[in-house]
Design goal:
By secondary structure, the protein is an alpha/beta fold. The chain has 11 helices and 12 strands. Helix 1 crosses helix 6, helix 3 runs parallel beside helix 4 and helix 5 packs across helix 7. The longest helix is centred in the first third of the chain and has 18 residues.
Length: 324
């Protein structure tokens, strides 16, 4: 269904639009990029966030708590908003938070949006979600898509694989390791492909699918779109490009697949972080970070690395500190 739009009722019609949209996590990574696009387009933004302390001073964003245990509060926070842009998810299980809880929380959010009269939901999912996936992340994402579709609200589902740009974690931390280690291990032959999209391209795609500007174009029905860039390097090619971009002399060597998550755990203990889980490596090695469909974002990761390599990986981005 990638890139296809099914027939149905108009997702947005003139009249009744307050100019106010809701974004989950407006001060996080993709949420911040979407918020920037909305504000630049003259929209007002209300965020539902678990980290209200991250709001900058004099922020134009209306900040509300993202409390899944308070359905009434969620409804009140979403009342008066036209489109909900949802970036909420958890990368890995930590403490009491796991993918099953994230699915339940997402259902609560969508129910509140329906009750509040939200006109459309733009939801950030993942490439290749599947209810029968061996990986909880991809099973959970499939369950959330199903929950969204069951609300009856008009929707657009965007499916990115890997994001880059801004203060993204993955490429930055690969660069950080390449700057400091003499050897970088790649699981197997490293021939599994990575279809990345720039975070600003994802944001533009989200906003384009969130509203219809009268006289410009018509968006009808529901959309499921692979949010991917124009290049599909293998993982080994990507690591090599990062190494070259940052001027590293690290050797890139193959390693048995099961050894890669184990090495990641050891490094994570030293850094007090989670670098790579076994499921994340398994999904990537299984080809789930790739799709053969057309590009929906124009930025080439190779060109971006060439331009940003000198600054990439200068400091480490700690995932646990950011989210937990």
């Amino acid at each position: 269904m990638s890139g296809k739009i099914s027939a149905g009722e108009p997702a947005w019609q003139p009249g009744g639009d307050t100019g106010l949209d809701a974004v989950t996590g407006a001060f996080s990574y993709s949420g911040r990029a979407i918020t920037g696009q909305l504000l630049a387009g003259g929209r007002s933004v209300r965020t539902l966030t678990g980290h209200p302390e991250r709001a900058p001073g004099e922020s134009p964003v209306d900040v509300r708590p993202l409390d899944f245990t308070d359905p009434q509060g969620l409804r009140e926070s979403l009342t008066g908003t036209t489109t909900l842009f949802n970036t909420y998810w958890v990368r890995f299980a930590h403490g009491r938070t796991d993918h099953e809880l994230a699915v339940a929380n997402s259902r609560a959010l969508f129910a509140a949006a329906a009750d509040a009269g939200v006109r459309r939901i733009v939801h950030v999912s993942i490439t290749n979600p599947a209810a029968d996936s061996p990986f909880p992340y991809f099973r959970g994402k499939a369950a959330v898509e199903e929950a969204l579709q069951a609300t009856g609200l008009p929707y657009s589902i965007l499916r990115p694989a890997v994001l880059f740009g801004g203060d993204g974690v993955l490429l930055n931390n690969i660069a950080w390791l390449l700057r400091r280690l003499p050897v970088f291990a790649v699981g197997g032959r490293g021939d599994y492909r990575i279809r990345a999209i720039h975070v600003d391209d994802l944001a533009r795609l989200a906003v384009d699918n969130g509203h219809v500007v009268p006289g410009e174009r018509t968006l009808i029905g529901n959309a499921v779109i692979d949010a991917v860039g124009p290049e599909r390097p293998t993982f080994r090619q990507l690591v090599t490009s990062i190494r070259d971009a940052v001027g590293s002399r690290a050797r890139i060597l193959p390693a048995p697949g099961p050894a890669v998550p184990a090495l990641g755990r050891l490094l994570g203990l030293a850094l007090h972080d989670v670098l790579l889980t076994r499921d994340e490596y398994g999904a990537m090695a299984s080809g789930l970070a790739d799709t053969p469909g057309p590009a929906t974002g124009p930025t080439r990761i190779s060109a971006w690395l060439e331009e940003n390599g000198p600054e990439l990986g200068r400091s480490y981005a700690n995932e646990l500190r950011r989210h937990f």
